[in-house]
Amino acid sequence: MAYVQPAEFAAKMIEAGESKVLMSTKDTLIRAYMAGAILALAAAFAVTITVNTGNPLVGALLFPVGFCMLYLMGFDLLTGVFTLAPLAVIAKRPGITWGGVMRNWGLVFVGNFAGALTTAVFMAIVFTMGFTTEPNAVGQKIGVIGESRTVGYAAAGMGGMLTVFIRAVMCNWMVSTGVVAAMMSTSVSGKVIAMWMPILVFFYMGFEHSIVNMFLFPSGIMLGGNFTWFEYFAYNEIPVVIGNLVGGLTFVGGMIYSTHYKTSPKRKVGAVGQPAE
């Protein structure tokens, strides 16, 4: 599968981060829009499979098809640029500033949200025969998901807020691992296999992904879910975005940069072949 060594893909991560920060506004928005739309469709696909089969594992096994598609087409998710863009600043690439990173994050958020919302409207039309009937079984399931992961968290107080934050941290630990894993191979099959594994883990474990939620929760509101836009942003989207940032930058970008790009000197070996103290 043409495996790329860690030191090599660590350098690729920094180059990718630099490229994303310097990308034009038009290209950033288009790529983010398409990423949000495709990932949202994959979420609808996974929920449909779960409802039709009664087995969440089957839906989780097939959900990564959307992530693989958008990555191979060169589109951008907020969760990915959370991890990659800051590395270009940390590595002191010329002309890369935190202001540029924040600009990139803002544009990608807007593009992802617009793309996911487009798919949410399309799927709401499909689930309700153009809003002329009650939601079908899949639409009803999406409404319930939105309720449990907004007002459900709110009802638990600080414990609920801590839970949604930790789920978001663990989500982007896995999702950004998928982004980096795609750099471990130079073949399409190798990239797909490497991406598939961590994305499967995040989805089946029910972790919180800010872009997937940009589809699930607006869809839930349109399909009769018993929660509001304020509850969606206050009890889910905002803490999830923060958790995704912490998870991706800390457990993936920061760790790989620290040990594979900025490698510490090796320990000296003593005269008899033992490590020197």
Tell me what the structure shows.
The protein has a single domain, classed as Glycerol uptake facilitator protein (Up-down Bundle). The protein is built from 12 helices and no strands. Helices cover 75% and strands 0% of the residues. The longest helix is centred in the C-terminal third of the chain and has 33 residues. α11 packs antiparallel against α12. With 277 residues, it is mainly α. It is found in: Membrane.
Task: Quickly list its features.
277 residues; 75% helix; Glycerol uptake facilitator protein; membrane; mainly alpha
Architecture blueprint of SSEs:
Layout: H1 6-22, H2 25-53, H3 56-62, H4 64-72, H5 78-90, H6 98-127, H7 137-148, H8 151-155, H9 158-181, H10 188-204, H11 210-222, H12 229-261
Helix pairs in contact: 1-5, 1-12, 2-3, 2-4, 2-6, 2-7, 2-11, 3-10, 4-10, 5-6, 5-12, 6-11, 7-11, 9-10, 9-12, 11-12
CATH H-tier superfamily: Glycerol uptake facilitator protein
* Helix-and-strand structural type: mainly alpha
Largest beta sheet, briefly?
none
Oligomer: single chain
Identify the CATH architecture: Up-down Bundle
Query: What is the mean pLDDT?
Result: 95
* SSE order: HHHHHHHHHHHH
* CATH topology-level fold name: Glycerol uptake facilitator protein
Report how far apart the termini are. Answer: 40 Å
Provide the helix percentage: over 70%
pLDDT < 50 stretches:
none
> Rough shape?
globular
Q: Supply the number of helical segments.
A: 12
Strand content: under 5%
The level-1 CATH class: Mainly Alpha
